[in-house]
Design a protein that fits this description.
With 406 residues, this protein is an alpha/beta fold. The strands form 4 sheets. An 8-stranded mixed sheet has the order 8-7-16-17-18-15-19-22. A 7-stranded mixed sheet has the order 1-10-4-3-14-21-20, covered by helices on one side.
Amino acid sequence: MTADASVPSAFPQRTRVVVVGAGPAGLTLANILRAASVDCVVLETESREFIEQRPRAGFLEEWAVRALDGRGLADGLLKNTVAHTECEFRFAGERHRFPYADVSGHRHYVYPQPLLVTDLVREYADVRGGEIRFGVRDVEPAGIDTDRPSVTYTDPETGERVRIDCEFIAGCDGARGVTRDCLPSEHVTIARHDFGVGWLALLAEAPPSSDCVVFGIHPRGFAGHMARSPQVTRYYLECPPGDDPENWPDERVWAELHERLAADGAQPLTEGRLIEKRVLAMHNYVVEPMGHGRLYLAGDSAHLLAPIGAKGMNLAIHDSLLLGDALVAYYGKGDDSGLRGYSAACLRRVWQYQEFSQWLSEVYHGTSSGDPFRAGTSVARLRRILVSPAAAIGFAELFLGKDTDY
């Protein structure tokens, strides 16, 4: 159920776990806890309508789909997803198909994040009766070094401060959330990497112009084509970091897309109205460890991945699976080993994905760097995975996050 959170501050509530943030990480975690009868409350600063419509990533790795299905959280996904088995690289005017399903035996699934969030909200709140408080303000965790932490927030209707006493806090509130800042700086390291480029993220009301994801490697800059639905296509254009979307009128956008994605035998791009146009800062970070005391981070609050490898939503799901199972084991069996090992278990995959993102960035951006040496080595990397069976297997397994944990 959803709630208006109008609880007088004089009567603090209690629950076992407060989940801050209703994105894929927070909602997957909340559903796991609810299914195991572990009391929790989800706090979200935005409205339900907003999070169910916010445009975000749309690629799920096969292990993530299997994991969600095993928890009863993939009914809508499996009915409406599109499975992808190959991608296409375009460079030097040529097209090169890469059949990663044939190479690895695994696929990608296209299912935009707003649809997954909608499914997870419905399952948690409407089907399982879980509590989500939307529109809360000024969320403030406290007492994470004690066995009685709490989260205080401002009720959006009454303006009152409301406190929820709890036993654990899950920080799933993303890159701009507040929970990460609660970790004591003397106990935490934040490693950062800036790719030195920007991406202009575009949504076009136009059918996809290819039956698979297309990566354009071009001296003018990277370009990407990703289907979102039969009527909507996601495009990316490399641009200067911090560029203003106003510098990219529709005519310029389509001219650059046509130029950078051109290749012999390629289907012409189908143009349409651009319904989204924003510049992404292409940088990554990792928080280590991913928690302190009774506060555990999951998803973008703990690590950020630029959309280079389409890994962010998958990592968020991986974190929440591990954290959910650890909390269920703690409450069901008194076993705290999962909580003690949570950060280390997550970070193994986090750093693997970070390294792959850095490697792939050189493939995408080396040609347009203005450095002839980087341009040459980036093409060499790409040609190696296209001609070497061993290199192809290695790339496919990293691209798809092949894993046997879930």
